[in-house]
Amino acid sequence: MLDQPIARIENLRVEFQTKDGPVVGVEDVSFNVNPGETVCIVGESGSGKSVSSLSLMRLVEFGGGEIAGGRLIFDRKDGEELDLSKTDQNLMRTIRGNEIGMIFQEPMTALNPVFTVGRQLTEGLRLHKGMTRDEAEARALELLKQVRIPEPERRLKQYPHELSGGMRQRVVIAMALACEPRLLIADEPTTALDVTIQAEILALMDRLKRETGTAVMFITHDMAVVAQMADRVVVMFRGNKVEEGTVEQIFENPQHEYTKALLAAVPKLGEMTGKPLPEPMKLLGREQGEIKPIPGTDEPLLTVKNLVTRFAVKGGFFRRTIANVHAVEDVSFTLNKGRTLSLVGESGCGKSTCGRSILRLVEPMSGQIDLDGTDIMALDHGQLRDARRDMQMIFQDPFASLNPQMQLGAAVAEPMKNFGTHSGSEREDRVAMLFDRVELPRSFMRRYPHELSGGQRQRVAIARALALNPKLIIADEAVSALDVSVQAQVLNLMMELQAELGLSFLFISHDMAVVERVSHDVGVMYLGRIVEMGPRQAVFENPQHPYTQALMKAVPIADPRTRKSERELNFKPIPSPIHPIGYEAAPSEYQEVSPGHFVLTTDSGY
Whole-angstrom Cα distance, residue 149 to residue 495? Predict the structure, then answer.
C-alpha cells in the first residue's frame, strides 16, 4: 500500500461561532498528502491554511472552531484508515505527536517556559514510546544532534528563554520528530527567523524528510520558501482551494489570477539591479497610481558618531557585573533628510539596540547623536521628552505596541494629547485624516486592536507614529511579521508618506529583498559593528565583506530550479558578543572601495 496517501482531506468545512453568527474559516477544501512528499499550502493570513492543519490535528475545537463537514482520512502505522473528524479526543491524544507531529509558528509559545528543554523533549517519548528516563534522554540528545544544535548536552539542561529564536525553533522541530511521525505539519516554521537560520532549517527539514520518509504538510505565505521546499503546492484564498499543482507548474505556469498576483508581489533579490532609487512594490490585485522614485536630499538629519551600547551581565553572590554584552560597538553613520537608511543583519547583531539607543530608550555608554542640530546625548529628561516629538518608532510587533483596552482612534490621538499639540475637534479631524492616510476606514477608529489583522494593526502603528509630524521614523522590523501582499502595501504606504512629507526612515530589517526595495543607503551589521556601508546599489551589486556575501547567498529565491543544497549553506556560527570587564574593543576602521561605499578593515570576527 505504498502508493496510498497518508492523509486525505475531503470537502473540509470549518465554522467558528461568533456574536454575529457563524463565520466560515474553511469553506470546501480537498487535497492529499502522499508518503515522502512535501505539500506546501500557500495563502495570505485569513485564507484558512492554519485552520486546515489544526483541523487535521483536531486542535481547532480548542480554538472555538468546529468541523462542520467533510472527512479527514488518515492512514495509520498499522495500515488501518481512520476518519479523524469523527475520532474521540482520547484516541487523538495517541495519534498527536506519535503519528502526526506539528511544528508551530511561534517557538516561544510552543515551549513550556517552566520546564527544561530536556524534560520537554523526553515527555513525548516516555508517554508514546514507553521508554525509560535514560533511553529517552539518549534519544533526546540524538535528536538535538540531528537538528544541529551546538553543545547539545548543555542545551538539555537549559530553559527555553536561554536559547535564541532559531535554537528554540530547532528544539520544536526535534520535539515534533521525536516519535518519528508519519506526517509532519509545519505551520510557518521559519516566518520569524533570520535568513541564514531559515536557510539552515529548511535544508534540515528537507534532509530529515529524505532520511525518515516522513510526509510533510508545510504551511507558509513565503513563495521563496515554497520554491525551496515543495513537491506539490496548494494555493488557498478565503477558505477555498483555488489552484493545485506541482511546484514547477505553479511557478512557471500559474493558472488562477490570485496565484499570479501572489507571485508578482514577492520582492526578489536582484530585481533592482541597475536602478539607483527606491521603487514601489507590486501590489496584489489592484492597479497602483504612479509613485515616482524618491531622490531625498543631501542635507544631513541624523548624525551618529562612535556609538557604543553595552549591557551588564551580572552574576555571583552579590550580583556584581562580571562581563558586558557588546551590543553596539563603535557605530557611525549619517542619514539625510527625506532618505531611507537600512540596517540589516541577523538577530543578535545589535541593529534594534542601535535604533533604540538613538531614541535613548536604551542608554548608550558613549558616542554622539545629532538630530537636526540637537545633541540628543546632552539632553536631560524633560528636554529628551520634547525632542522625541521629532523622532518616533514603529515596533516589530504591532499587537504588543498597542494598548488592548484602548480604541484605535484614542491610541492614535494619544501622542497629540500627551504633547498638547492639537485639542478638541481639531484633534479628531487629524486622527480621521491619519486613518485616511494609512488607508483604513474611519469606522476602525472605534475598534480595538484584537479586531484587526496584523497588517491593519501595523497601519495603526504607522498612523500613531505620524501623529506628531516627526522628522525621523525608526522602523524596527516593521513588516517582518506581515504577508507578502500586506507587506507590499505597508511599504508602499511608507514610501508615499516619505515622498509627501519628506520623512526620513531608519529601517531595521533582516529581509534583504525588502531592504533592496526601499533603501537609499544600506549598512550591514554583524556583532555590533557596521561591516559594510554605502549606497544601496553599491552594497547589493558589489558586496565586499565576506559576511555581506554570506547574507546574500542565504536569501531563498522564488524559483524551484535554483534550490540550494545543504552543502552551500554552512554559515559560521555567530561568536558570543559577551566579553569580560576591561576588554578593549578595537576601533572600527574603514576602507573606501568606491565613492561612499565603505568596508570594515578591523577584524569583525567573521
Answer: 40
